[in-house]
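Follow-up to my earlier ticket, as requested here are the two runs.
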Amino acid sequence: MPQAVIARERKNRLRRDPAGRRRIPFPNGRTRCNDSPAAGPRIDPATSVSARSLAAVGRLIEGRSLTDAPLDPSTGSGRLWKRLFARKSVALVQSQFQGEELHRHLGPLNLTSLGVGCIIGAGIFVITGQAAAAHAGPAIVLSFIIAGFVCAFAGLCYAELASVLPVSGSAYTYAYTVLGEIIAWVMGLLLVLEYGLAASTVAVGWSGYVVSFLADFGVHIPPELAAPTGSAVTLADGTTTTAIANLPALLGVAGVTGLLVLGVSESARANNFFVVLKVAVLVAFIVIGFFYVDRANWTPFIPPHQGGDEFGLQGVFRAASIIFFAYVGFEAVSTAAAEAKNPQRDLPIGIIGSLGISTALYMLTALVLTGIVPFTLLAVPDPMATAVDAIGLGWFSFFIKAGAILGLSSVMLVLLYGQTRIFYTMGKDGLLPPLFSRLHSRRKTPWMNTVIVGGAVAAAAATTPIKVLGDLVSLGTLAAFAMVCISVMYLRKSHPELHRPFKVPFYPLTPILGVLTCGFLIIQMPIHNFLLIGSYLVVGLGVYFLYGLRNSRISRDV
């Protein structure tokens, strides 16, 4: 194969005309003088067919795959297949950090705190009641244990990839480097579910707490303006009507979007404040709420199976697949690999420690929640507000609801920020239009990107039931985590020589268990979720083939 390419290259090599001027061949065999203005637009030799062929020859001589070479998607099905799986080279990605060594100052306590701060705030305030009411009852605590174990496997795999490729883009960049462009695109679609739809889900929960908080002060938002479009709501007189939209959720997302457009971001001090606030709310709820628990509400602990995924062990597993949403954000620990003092020791402590602390808080909160209020009454977007209202302590209710509103506001901000930065990276790679990577001239924020993402998230929050949103977030996140585990195994085989500051313990058992456990929770989802995800991926792949494939910059960046 190299000889054939070299022969073709010799045939089309650069020539000089009798006047000594440099001539460049066109793909159709015609030539022109490089310095002749009348010959038409100037061709850059670096982007010519000749130069690209030489680049391919060089890669073959060096033993590298043509998959990594710049390819033209219009040159046949074989090369199109290679083009779909074109990868960023590991050396290129790592070079982004060469000469910019990050200060290694994070110890195990810092990493654990970072993880707890990222995990707590979304699922426990929002999704727990839904999963307990419809699937697990008081046994929701077992569902948290199952979901925590799955996250531990995936988290360790994240940590190894982050130590090798400590770059922005997280799982999207990992997939682009290890598995290829089309897989990276699919990962980007899944991350829209993990971040974008997660922000919508949090906004719906935020709306529930705001409505309950305002009602305590005599301000009542009409039910038809605080529920997803088309859902049936009960009015004060007992009659039912159809909801128009969840207006508070829409306004909440709009407010956070405005802050991001203006360039407002959380400082370390503000972030620490929100972490302390969220943990304080949960601890106060556990400690004070414990004295109002009616143990009769815990019987039976695992309600009898009622068919399908309603209660019984099937319900516990189904609930685990739903409340997996509560652990979204823990992978932020793995992205700090480049700043850890001792990655091999500190990253496992940070990941397992933050997951352990969060799981313990989740279990205790769920026990108190289902002990104060019968689990059948918790199918609401603000379950903790329902519980504190049942207690009847006005000051305590104010503290819990205000803390939940502030905590969820920070979570919305972080999730929307993450989604816009993922799209920013994809825009820089040419997979999305340039407007997604265009910065505001004065504020230096991707403002058009932020407005588009904010509008889509607000629309989903205003019109979609929280149960559907939570399911889609968990399904997308589980699929993304499984791909990360696969990436670790693939990179170990394809690049065994790479320096890995952190290695997954008990390899290959850990990534294999990560894939299997993620797959197990995925199959607990109802079939209609797969139809929704399938339709979404088909549309997304259509966008890739119509735009991303033709405009990707990998041919110039690799």
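Run two:
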Amino acid sequence: MSTRHPRLRRKLAAAIGVLASMSLLAACATSDATPGAAGGGEPQAGGDITFLIDSLGDTWIPNNGSISSYQGQVWRQLTDKLVYVDEEGTVSPWVAESWEQNDDATEYTLNLRDGVTFSDGTPVDADAVVANLDIWAKGDPERGINRIGLFPSANYETATAVDPSTVKVTFTQPTLGFIPTLGYHGSILLSPETIALPAEGQADLSNAIGSGAFTVESWQEGDNVVLTKRDDYSWGPEALEHTGPAYLDSITYKIVAEQSLRTASVQSSQADVGYNASPQELEALSSEGFQVATPRYLGFAYGFAVDTRVEPFGETAVRQAFQHGIDRQEILDTVYTDDWQAAESFIQSNVPEATDHAAAFAYDPEESERLLDEAGWVAGADGVRAKDGKRLEVTLHPTPYLATSQPVDELIAQQLTRIGFDVTLEAFDVITYGERVTNKEGIAVEEPTRSFIDIGTVAGVLTSVNGGEDWFGVGESDTTLNDFATGISTASDSEARAQLADELQAYVLEQGYYVPVTQIVQRIYVQQPGLQGVTYDGVAFANYATAWLS
């Protein structure tokens, strides 16, 4: 690890100090916090910020951790992407200054921006981009490196450096989603030197050589990461107007697991950003003058992916009863604020191809009871239904990637109990959740928190076709779903693909494969009034290359 600069040592010491006493912090928050109105004016260079975060995940291997809600915050500052995608899904140039595609969307040409370099001074040229595309699409299982989830790997054929500033990419099938997916948070540009390292080397964050506006100054596993600005950076996305070096000198990411302590630290001016505050605190924090940001990402709505291999969810009636047994308005009224919205489908409504299918899973406990009655599930003396000697049981695992998941699941447990389910909750921290819940056999319902940039990549989770993630446990047995997955991932016409997306949404919800709850706001930021110019991309990550302290 490198030695910290004196100013960073002081900043980090202040961040570590927030752990000393919850009661002291609370006292400071109530007596010393006197935030003023958020300032404006011209950006000012200089200054260091501390970002308190609940976790930094379990690995720094880029392909394995860059899509995490936690590590992704750091990778956003260290790396660039070929294109920039904003919160509405609009794609604009970044390291790729332009691109062309053939008529059937099987071949793309990327024209790279001149003068872009990695932090070690080597160029971000065509050879480097080819190395990145290959590792995103294929991973390297022998080295323990995953491919990037939701990258269009199934159709990917090859990438070739035509000349130092031109890359040609070919696919075996039409792949309309290729260019937008280059703005996905897994599609981060790293030096070929970093990519070539074994997994153990990539897991050492000090070996990360990116082309972003910041570099790694130091890091300590399970505790903190310190980033410092690159003075020679000059190629930020033009969509953000500021394309030059960051105004801030440094960012310290510090793990503080306790949510209330993160918020109190911002209130007492011991930190600049608190991540994942409770929604119930936001109105009060805003009224005190703090900045609150709740960007919605492009991706899947918050809810449950149902594994049909796990009983009793092999029965369509049980899945549909589960859907209709959830009172989403009660959840919004109890847990959230007006910034949150009910789900309308299993994808977010800001995805361009999203359509409203809320009626398919509307709260209707009478319908839930009718479905279960007709399927032979009979209520016992304790109110729990049973069939053929087996109780109607389900275990919910609140996702640690969403601050509100546990209180939401507690409400859902009460709601499902009223229609005859026996509901158990098991909560784990981030690392244990990954070990025991994520993509593990025997988990009946899982709560994905997954963003995506382009609707075509949704095909990668629906079934096991072409190595898909098979969220619903159907393998290739549901031929209708297979056809949708193939059609939406290989469409060459945007209008035809949008129609397929509408039909796909209707089918998934009618089958009860997914149980939407709310539109997801996974990343909640509480910030000091003086922290200006923060921007948020299509996956709701904060960008501090544009930020300054007023």
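The only thing I checked on run two: Residues 216 and 327 are 46 Å apart (CA to CA). Let me know what else you need.
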